[in-house]
Specification:
Order of helices and strands of chain B: EEEHEEEEHEEE
Radius of gyration of chain B: 18 Å
Helix content of chain B: 10-25%
CATH superfamily of the largest domain in chain B: CPE0013-like
Number of helices of chain A: 8
Strand content of chain B: 35-45%
Largest interface: A-B, 30 and 27 residues
Strand content of chain A: 25-35%
Largest sheet of chain A: 7 strands, mixed
Structural class of chain B: alpha+beta
Structural class of chain A: alpha/beta
CATH class of the largest domain in chain A: Alpha Beta
Largest sheet of chain B: 5 strands, mixed
Shape of chain A: globular
Shape of chain B: elongated
Distance between the termini of chain A: 65 Å
Number of strands of chain A: 31
Number of domains of chain A: 3
CATH topology of the largest domain in chain A: FAD/NAD(P)-binding domain
Oligomer: heterodimer
CATH class of the largest domain in chain B: Alpha Beta
């Protein structure tokens, strides 16, 4: 059987940075597998700018950001195999993959880094009634058509969901000559960045309909229009508020789901709050030697944070291979208090060293709130913020020595404290 | 003239109002920090945007992604897009190569953002 020290599944931003991180830590036997023809993952189709402000102190487009890491992988001579689909991962770290060039292969790894990214929530998960006609796309699929294939999916567009991909596609479709009639958002706020709302909608006079949703989809041979209605505080449509929007294209930007089928095959525990693996502060999953990072672990807003997390996973995978990852000791659970959702990591080892990085999503919009970390009822971190919103992940770096009393602590509590009215 | 805008510097998204007589921005209100005030000033007097788009590639159905090397004046966006859409390049092209010089007299070049060929 083919053997490798560190096997990386996925050659997108996470996989590339994990490989670079592992190599720079000293690893020389690394293999990246990717199902696409080229490395770079979803960045290849994100031709807009705004990537890399943290990593490179400049605003790059997606393809430029990816190329920086691809160049590094190639300069280090890290082997990669594209057009190779991983179909199974076992708990003893045997990876099964298929490709045209090699057929079916089994590869035994000493450590595996899961970097499969995420996919978009499809129409089927929304339960929107109506015709099953062509013309309904996820925003990312439409982005692939326009930016990689050079095709325009339609000319009269409505967008459901105001996530960043939907907003970016509103501008792209407008740039390509289509008319975007509205961006419809169920929640009373958008999960997209303010910059995207201004520069992708406001700039072109595209209305953002908050607290609205699509309640019907019309068209037999092809989409002819959608019915949009206002929703109440219970998020249910208000009868009598329906309005018809003729269109030939409906784009869905309604959330992302980490792609964890392989993770589950390996017997790795999944966290219901992130739909990604349960990990400790070293990004190691419940199966020793299997690490997870990037959007397959939890959905990020910024690729820079994906790269940072993935580098760390790469370094730790190499330390694991070398037997340098200290026996973790007891894993102290991280509890989510008021206002905190989808925290990563879910456990911190009582012997943690260096910097412990917590990332989570606020459950709502909070103004002038404090983010607090508590161990044994004692505040070890308290950070005042002007605004917290579900669309912006909170990223906390805490030196491990600040987590004093961790050995005796039943848990670590992360919570948000809102000022009294 | 009265202007209303949303600050893009952070998730606060302050609603800023201001008056502009074509020379001077006055009565800026609603901002929370200095960045907001500065944003209102430039956004009203000289709004600019980066433009990213696609050009054709000879012998390939897949387009090539490009960007303006720096932001261009907002009213030029659609004229620039028209010129960009009408452009076809011959491979090989590398990241940073100039694809269109001084697009629409903006003083800004359009450059490739991916490698082809």
């Amino acid at each position: 059987m083919r053997k490798t020290d560190i096997l990386i599944i996925g050659g997108g931003p996470a996989g590339l940075a994990a490989a670079v991180g592992a190599y720079e830590a000293g690893a020389r036997d690394i293999l990246i597998l990717d199902r696409e023809e080229h490395l770079g993952g979803i960045l290849k189709q994100c031709i807009h700018n705004g990537f890399g402000l943290h990593t490179f102190q400049e605003e790059l487009t997606g393809p430029e950001y990816a190329q920086r890491f691809i160049d590094q992988v190639q300069a280090y001579g890290i082997p990669y195999q594209t057009e190779t689909m991983v179909i199974h991962v076992s708990a003893d770290k045997v990876v099964t993959c298929v490709s045209r060039q090699n057929g079916l292969e089994h590869i035994q790894a000493k450590a595996i880094i899961l970097c499969m990214g995420c996919r978009e929530r499809p129409r089927g998960s929304l339960g929107t009634p109506g015709e099953r006609c062509p013309g309904v796309f996820t925003a990312g699929t439409a982005q692939k058509f326009t930016n990689l294939e050079g095709m325009l999916p339609g000319k009269e567009v409505v967008i459901l969901g105001s996530g960043d991909i939907g907003l970016i596609m509103a501008r792209r479709m407008t740039f390509l000559g289509a008319k975007v009639h509205a961006c419809v958002e169920l929640m009373p706020y958008s999960s997209g960045l303010k910059r995207n709302i201004v520069q992708c909608l406001d700039d072109f006079g595209i209305p953002l309909l908050l607290s609205h949703t699509v309640v019907d989809i019309h068209g037999r041979e092809h989409l002819t229009g959608v019915t949009v209605a206002e929703v109440g505080p219970d998020l249910k449509p208000i009868p009598g508020t329906e309005k018809e929007y003729p269109c030939d294209t409906l784009l869905l930007s309604v959330g992302l789901i980490p792609e964890n089928e392989l993770t589950e095959m390996a017997g790795v525990k999944i966290a219901p709050t992130t739909s990604g693996a349960v990990v400790n502060e070293e990004l190691q999953t419940s199966v020793p030697g299997i690490f997870s990072c990037g959007n397959v672990l939890h959905v990020h807003d910024l690729v820079d944070f994906v790269s940072e997390e993935a580098r760390k996973a790469g370094v730790n995978a190499y330390r694991y291979v070398q037997g340098e990852l200290p026996e973790s000791g007891r894993a102290v659970p991280v509890e989510m208090g008021f206002g905190v959702g989808g925290i990563v990591p879910q456990f911190v080892s009582e012997t943690a060293t260096g910097t412990v990085n917590f990332m989570f999503r606020p459950r709502n919009v909070y103004r002038n709130a404090k983010v607090i970390v508590e161990v044994n009822g004692e505040q070890v971190l308290s950070k005042r913020t002007m605004i917290l919103a579900p669309g912006e992940m909170v990223n906390l770096n805490l030196p491990a020595e600040k987590l004093k009393g961790l050995k005796e602590a039943p848990s670590i509590l992360v919570r948000i404290e809102v000022p009294e009215a | 003239m009265k202007y209303e805008l949303t600050c893009i510097n952070c998730p606060m998204g302050c609603r800023i109002t201001a008056d502009y007589d074509g020379k001077e921005v006055t009565n800026i209100q609603g901002y929370t920090c200095a960045r907001g005030k500065a944003y209102a000033q430039t956004e009203i007097t000289d709004p600019t945007r980066m433009v990213t788009a696609l050009v054709g590639v000879e012998g390939s159905h897949a387009p090539l992604s490009v960007k303006t090397q720096s932001p261009i004046r907002k009213p030029l966006i659609f004229d620039a897009l028209k010129v960009i859409r009408g452009t076809t390049v011959k491979p090989p092209v590398h990241i940073g190569d100039v694809v269109i010089e001084n697009v629409c007299g903006s003083g800004v070049n359009v450059i490739a953002t991916e490698n082809v060929g």
